[in-house]
Amino acid sequence: MTVNKMVSGVQPSIEINHSREYFFYEDPWGYKSGMTYLNYRLYTYSYLKTSLRDILPRRGGVADISFANTPFESEQIGSVFTAKGIIYLPGISRHHTLRTNISYQKQNPARYVFNNIISLPRGYTDSLLIRMSSLTFDYVFPIAYPDLGNDMAYLKRIRAAFFFDYATGQNIEMKNVIFRSAGLELMTDVHLFHIFFPFNIGIRLIYLPDRNKVITEPVFSMDLNKFL
Q1: In 7, 140, 170, 202, which residue has its Cα 20 to 30 A from 51's Cα atom?
Q2: CB under 8 A, 24+ apart: contacts of 125-131
Q3: For the chain, which residues score pLDDT lower than 70?
Q4: HSE on the CB side for 51, CA within 13 Å?
Q5: Nearest-angstrom CA–CA distance, 224 and 228
Q6: What is the pLDDT of residue 227?
């Protein structure tokens, strides 16, 4: 729904997924295939309409709350609750945006646990958390609009972002943990083969202060919903 310059909406949903993974059961004794997952979600948003050169909205917010469980096999996995809030604020120049993301995840585990629903700070991939609170900042801005292309590819934009990620929580060993990272992303927005949604292709430079380590990684994705 669009009112004046604001785009707003509310999207409740229930999603059902079925997995053919094998899990061990004590009664009856042995392994059995099949697990049904239910995900209940309430997604709301309200943000300022973007111009053609905006990367993200310059004002607005998103609230995303979800609860997932396995109601027919609760002794195996249990449940997980997540809540996420995103705030968009204008930067120091036109088409610049500061995005702040505050997230929370709490699992009620059984024999197994869910994978992390909320992303770990960039640069970390090796921790499964029962409880996590995270805070991320992304300062996103355009560098150039080449508007170059042919029948194979169209280079729409070159952009960059400075970021800082912080998360704290409790891992599966019930130990308190802290993760921090900061860095820079250099990205291009490219349309390939006349596909409407742009591909994001670039590189991410990450510094992990707690490990005194620098990581460089490629980034490749399709931008289906850039406001999340």
Answers
A1: 202
A2: 127/171, 127/177, 127/179, 128/171, 128/172, 129/105, 129/169, 129/170, 129/171, 129/172, 129/177, 130/106, 130/169, 130/170, 130/171, 130/172, 130/174, 131/105, 131/106, 131/107, 131/169, 131/170
A3: 1-3, 23-32, 74-75, 194-196, 223-228
A4: 8
A5: 10
A6: 43
Burial class (CB in 10 A: 0-12, 13-18, 19+), 129: buried
The DSSP call for residue 219 is E
- Residue 67 burial (CB count, 10 A): 14
* Residue 220 backbone phi and psi in degrees, to 5: -145, 120
pLDDT at residue 196 in the model: 67
Contact 103, 133 (CB under 8 A): yes
* Secondary element (H or E) of residue 154: strand 153-171
